[in-house]
Amino acid sequence: MTAETTTAGRASSFIPDVRVPVGWTLGGLGAGLALGIALEGTALAERLLPFADVIGTLWLRGLQMTIVPLVAALLVIGIVQTVAAASAGRVAGTSLALFAAILTTGTVFTAFAMPALLDAFPIPPAAAEALRQGLSAEQAGEVPTIADFLKSLIPSNIFAAAAETAMIAIIVFFSLLALAIVRLPATHRQLMVTFFEAITGTMLIIIGWVLWLAPVGVFALSLSVAGQSGIAALGALAHYIVTVASMGGVVLLLAYVVAVFAARQQFSRFFRAALPVQAMAISTQSSLASLPAMLAACRSLGLKETTGEFVLPLAVALFRATGPAMNLAVAIYVARLTGVELSPVVLATGVLVALATTIGSVSLPGAISFVTAIGPIAIAMGVPIGPLALLVAVEVLPDIMRTVGNVTMDVAVAATVDRHTAEEGGGEGEAGNPASTSSA
Q1: Pick from 50, 59, 213, 215: nearest CA to 134
Q2: Nearest Cα to 137, choosing from 49, 68, 44, 210?
Q3: How far apart are CA 77 and CA 428, in angstroms?
Q4: Can you tell me the distance from the alpha carbon of 220 to that of 33, in angstroms, rounded to the nearest whole number?
Q5: Mean of pLDDT over the chain
Q6: CA-based nearest residue to 89, from 417, 346, 398, 399
Q7: How far is CA 360 from the centre of its chain?
Q8: Burial, 160: exposed, middle or buried (Cβ in 10 Å; 0-12, 13-18, 19+)?
Q9: 370 versus 281: which is more confidently predicted?
Q10: Model confidence, pTM
């Protein structure tokens, strides 16, 4: 799977070339499920399943151990880049305001819509029990009260917070650290950014090593699940793909609403312009690879070249329209699967962490993005992250919806910014160099 978030110029230079054996991982999932179903209830299954559980658990912990340092480093880099982009001019400010409004709208909508969708179309009981039996070693965290949530915002000891994986406290601390770094002299600021870039690159290399073992880890986990529950496990995976992808579908529809009402584009014209972009997104699952098609769509819509050439690279670097909404949808799904109570505080925590972690997204393979983006949300909500290790194997299917929604919204935002700046007297020449927004 290719990267679904990316940036131009210097910001991508610290990202190592991490490749994920997606085909082999899907093969491991299929083989594990098939073997587990065949062995269900047999004496051989009783001997094999404990061994498979050990292998699957070790692989999962290999992914977990990098979450805190990677999220912290990405958050710092993302905030520094966003502040730099905001100072690039009025076009950049308008773009960032639209990004924030769209991301917040989609994420808050998901917090209400996903539980309602699961109420209307609940997880098949047999399928839910199948995954719970196979991935029940990790217990859900306690549901926090409002007082607990407020107290958790400020850590008394950041190292203790990291040891306890207190994601809210970690996000607050490193957000403040990033804002402080922005105020340093240029030499010191660059030194700090380079330090966090080095941490990011190092963690990604480690994750790359772990993900090369994904076929083995996913095979072991799926064998453990199917060996205890049989074919019912397939129902849970199919139900998961449809429900989570539907939240991305809502964001995709929102892109047309933005294009028609905010950008004042004719629906038929925008629909035709977006089709080649969506075809490229489906075939590549990459916003970066779709960038030339997005620029062509902007030309066909009659936008100023300077608008498209600035807004689209900025959007590809900092804006993932479907990201926080679909990430929160995954966490909510796993919460329902594992019996975590979705109280208002839990959902509010999920919304805040989903929005915060999208700032730090960079050019990562989809499997890595899945773990690093959803892991912090699940942890903050008190949701077990064990099921994520199995769901990552089928992420290739929801990731198609992620990319299609992202690129369509990118074009809609570019059209909106173009109309807004034209009404205010232009804005050409204020955008500057898109690559400059990715440097500290």
Answers
A1: 50
A2: 49
A3: 28
A4: 9
A5: 82
A6: 417
A7: 10
A8: exposed
A9: 281
A10: 0.80
Which burial class, exposed, middle or buried, applies to 139 when counting CB atoms under 10 A from its CB (0-12, 13-18, 19+)? exposed
Q: Is the pLDDT of residue 348 over 90?
A: yes
Q: How far apart are CA 175 and CA 75, in angstroms?
A: 7
Which residue, 211, 214, 178, is CA-closest to 66?
211
For residue range 71-102, list pLDDT tens digits in order: 888 888 888 888 887 776 778 888 889 999 99
Q: Which two tokens stand for residue 160?
A: 């203790």
From the list 404, 422, 407, the residue with the least C-alpha distance to 302 is 422
Q: Give the Cα separation of 281 and 137 in Å (integer).
A: 38
> For residues 286 and 291, what is the distance between their CA atoms, to the nearest angstrom?
9
Distance CA 99, CA 437 (A): 15
Of 425, 427, 439, the C-alpha closest to 91 is 427
d(CA 212, CA 44): 28
Token readout for 322 is: 């479907």
The answer for residues whose C-beta is within 8 angstroms of residue 142's C-beta and 6 or more apart is 382
Residue-wise pLDDT for 297-315, tens only, equals: 999 999 998 888 889 988 8
Helix (H, G, I), strand (E, B) or coil at 208: helix
Distance between CA 112 and CA 250 in Å, rounded?
Answer: 13
DSSP 3: B
177-183 contact pairs (CB < 8 A, 24+): 177/76, 178/75, 178/76, 178/77, 178/78, 178/79, 178/80, 178/83, 179/79, 179/83, 181/76, 181/80, 181/440, 182/79, 182/80, 182/83
Go through the domains of the chain in sequence order and give each one's CATH number: 9-438 (1.10.3860)
